[in-house]
Amino acid sequence: MIRSTLATLALMGALSPAYSYDPQSLGKDAAWVEEQSDRIASQATGLADNLWNWAEMGYQETRSSAAIQEHLQEAGFSVETGIGDIPTAFVASYKQGRGGPVIGLLAEMDALPGVAQHAVPEYSPIEGQAAGHACGHHLFGAGSTAAAIMLSRWLEETGTPGEIRLYGTPAEEGGSGKVYMVRAGAFEGTDVVLQWHPGDRNAALPTSSLANRSAKFRFKGVASHAAAAPERGRSALDGVEAMNFMVNMLREHVPDSTRIHYVITDGGMAPNVVPAQAEVFYYVRDNTAADLEPVWERVEQIARAAAQGTGTSVEWEIIHGNHSLLPNQVLNRLLDASMRQFGGIEYSKSEEKFARSLDGLASKPGRMIGDQKKIVDYDPSEAPSPGSTDVGDVSWNVPTGGFATATWVPGTSAHTWQAVAAGGTSIGHKGMLLAAETLALAGIQLLREPGLVEQATREFERKRGDDFEYAPLLGDREPPLDYRK
């Protein structure tokens, strides 16, 4: 149900003293969005369900990308594919008239390996399926597509000049798909970007994220019989273990904000053979790219020292790298106010039964069933979240606002089978449609009031600083199209 409250209107006005919104006009836009949402709901949920069933991993989202493109082309969008030398990346555009703001929307689509789950409230893996949408990117892609289509219809009906760009962004999960798209210039000419993410609550908080870089360190040694001729061997696994030992000592001498984690991805095949090759996969995170760089340099120095000390050699491949998220208060306040026009999410009796039956919820302090009805109070503190996202690179190049909706049962963590299960039901659909409506209403306000775009841009430029020069943390490497194979 649409809710136009005085508090909401005051918050909209708080974006800037120069801009206020007529209650009747704002309510009319929200009513129009809600009507359009009802019209395309079955199409949007059908698309989301297809993506959920296909569960394609990073850079392998062939069917998912094609299905999203097809929906947009049928709605009158022109589509450019293969962005940044990524077959599943695309930009779909709808333009009305000359001039006007260019509004970008992000649409993720990749699934996570090893989390295939039926849409039931108990642990039930799908046999033979390699991946599952444990981060809800099927809802992300379908919801943003629905919002883009609604905005294109609004442009057509009103004759307002402007352009909508829907970015099909593959491989967010460890593949940094958006970084390659940014590097290829795909976001040039876009005035603002709006994005959302599935979650367990409704919130448009302007949080930051951690900058992140990863690499696979590959050591090479000399194979030998571990019992008959150990003196002839040079263990690549010794190189890996020496590196890990020294990195663990490094933890005492890094900032509190630093996070370092690793897994040994190749440690040899047989104990009686000195391993000639071994590999360890590292992630390093910190508040910003500037904070990350000196720590990363020390990790690289440790790798060289480990090789020298064990008589092996080492080389490494940067797998991905993401900048931190640069929050934008103007856009996030707009998204918060837009979401409040539609209110939270009501469960049906069957949905509530499903929610209460969901086994093993990764309980979070203060989260409980019923919270999906609420919208979290706006907090402008910009506190960093513990995760990382390639949206960060977009946000350092274009003013970017984002939010989350309760597509999962409150208390559910991302990357769990519980998230997969709820995302394949009407619980996920309801959260997705709230996100689509929020994006569409916020987009309409930006198209109506280009001055809001100017405000967001001024904030963006001030926070980024005059001397900022963007450099992707993954360097000049090509997209790792086979990283999930």
TrEMBL record:
Domain spans labelled Peptidase M20 dimerisation: 214-307
Record keywords: Hydrolase, Signal
Any one of the GO CC terms: cytoplasm
InterPro entries from the UniProt entry: Amidohydrolase, Aminobenzoyl-glu_utiliz_pB, Bact_exopeptidase_dim_dom, Peptidase_M20, Peptidase_M20/M20A_hydrolases, Peptidase_M20_dimer
Alphabetical GO biological process terms: folic acid catabolic process
Domain of life (superkingdom): Bacteria
GO molecular function: dipeptidase activity; para-aminobenzoyl-glutamate hydrolase activity
Pfam families: M20_dimer, Peptidase_M20
Signal sequence region: 1-20
Keyword Hydrolase: yes
Name of the featured protein: Aminobenzoyl-glutamate utilization protein B
Organism expressing this protein natively: Microbulbifer yueqingensis
